[in-house]
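Try this one yourself first.
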């Protein structure tokens, strides 16, 4: 499952970056690029909630396979439309929504499966291993997407994703039947109410949700990358790929050298400090972009190479900080939540993890359109630091969370 998810993830990242570049080519609008993420928010929220209920009521292997099939068909349709020249911005929005919804169900289900495959004391190490896979996918996928789009166009890039997605089926197909343990609640209103009642009592889980929403809403400049490659930094699609991949370099490196990180038992403190560090690195990225305003104008064929290099370093540091937070958040979710409730809470968790960046895309795209490209990350990074400090101070139980005695 780990190998299949990693290979399919590379293809998924190819499509994410390619759709961004595709929309920007059709519209020349950063706001239109940010709306890709916003358009998928409502379907993703609904799918995450309902997918979590499905994962707590039925065989999780089957649920994950069905979700992967839907994402595969939507990506194949996007590929066919592109090759025939029939794609429009509305097709790109619509199919992105379907893919986001299917991936939301699949991610919630696959994450709920992990604690059934390994011992409790290996969960933090497994989260770090997933960080290696995620870092590799986001590091390779966007960089390759930028190069492929620049050299071959959009059709071939989507086609490669279709091929790589087949690996997901191989990974899931090898799993045994995985019915939820404990009392099974059928999907419906009662299941949602049951899950939210548990969440109301789970103060530690709520605190980590709030911290992640703050970080991703105000500290995610992803929607700015196409414009940065075209307007401020130069280099076009290649720069867009490099900026996106730099975050993954930090994720990959921090997971690869995570021995001491996974041994740290005070996960609440670890999350809060990692989010503060994330905010600081995003603010640094914004400051670097501000410097670029005072340099000679860059273009697609004359990029500001030194500035791009420094910006990539700042983004790599942000990826490392976010991954450390993710290791502790995932471990807390898997260790502190009962198995019969894990699918629904993972569904909410996926909504938080994926919904925050979509709100962040709206924040960054709108503010950049109204002001300047450097302002959203600079201001947002400082807001993340302030919110992380405030949330940590208001939740003493969260600060005292001990991985040796996990409590939601």
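Now uncover the answer:
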């Amino acid at each position: 499952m780990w190998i299949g998810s990693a290979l399919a993830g590379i293809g998924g990242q190819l499509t994410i970056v390619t759709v961004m570049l595709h929309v920007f080519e059709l519209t020349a609008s950063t706001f239109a690029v940010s709306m890709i993420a916003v358009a998928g928010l409502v379907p993703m929220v609904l799918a995450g909630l309902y997918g979590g209920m499905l994962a707590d009521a039925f065989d999780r292997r089957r649920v994950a396979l069905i979700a992967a099939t839907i994402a595969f068909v939507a990506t194949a349709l996007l590929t066919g439309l592109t090759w025939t020249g029939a794609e429009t911005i509305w097709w790109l929005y619509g199919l992105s929504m379907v893919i986001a919804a299917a991936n939301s169900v699949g991610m919630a289900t696959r994450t709920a499966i992990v604690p059934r495959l390994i011992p409790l004391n290996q969960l933090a190490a497994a989260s770090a291993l997933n960080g290696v896979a995620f870092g590799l996918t986001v590091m390779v996928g966007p960089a390759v997407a930028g190069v492929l789009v620049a050299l071959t166009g959009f059709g071939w890039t989507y086609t490669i994703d279709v091929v790589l997605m087949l690996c997901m089926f191989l990974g899931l197909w090898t799993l045994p039947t995985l019915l939820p343990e404990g009392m099974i609640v059928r999907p419906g209103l009662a299941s949602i109410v049951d899950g939210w009642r548990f969440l109301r009592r789970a103060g530690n889980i709520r605190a980590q949700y709030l911290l992640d929403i703050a970080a991703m809403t105000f500290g995610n400049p992803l929607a700015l990358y196409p414009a940065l490659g075209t307007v401020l930094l130069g280099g076009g699609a290649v720069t867009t790929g490099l900026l996106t991949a730099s975050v993954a370099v930090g994720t990959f490196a921090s997971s690869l050298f995570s021995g001491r990180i996974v041994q740290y038992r005070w996960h609440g403190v670890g999350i809060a400090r990692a989010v503060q560090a994330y905010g600081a690195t995003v603010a640094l990225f914004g400051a670097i972009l501000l410097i670029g305003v005072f340099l000679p104008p860059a273009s697609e064929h004359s990029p500001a190479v030194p500035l791009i290099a420094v910006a990539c370093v700042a983004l790599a540091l942000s990826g490392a900080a976010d991954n450390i937070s993710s290791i502790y958040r995932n471990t807390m979710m898997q260790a502190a939540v009962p198995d019969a409730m894990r699918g629904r809470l993972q569904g909410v968790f996926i909504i938080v993890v994926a919904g925050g960046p979509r709100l962040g895309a709206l924040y960054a795209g709108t503010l950049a359109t109204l002001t300047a490209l450097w302002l959203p990350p600079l201001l947002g990074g400082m807001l993340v630091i302030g919110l992380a400090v405030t949330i940590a101070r208001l939740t003493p139980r969260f600060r005292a969370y001990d991985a040796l005695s996990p409590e939601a």
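Discussion: The chain has a mean pLDDT of 85. The CA atoms of residues 79 and 158 lie 5 Å apart.
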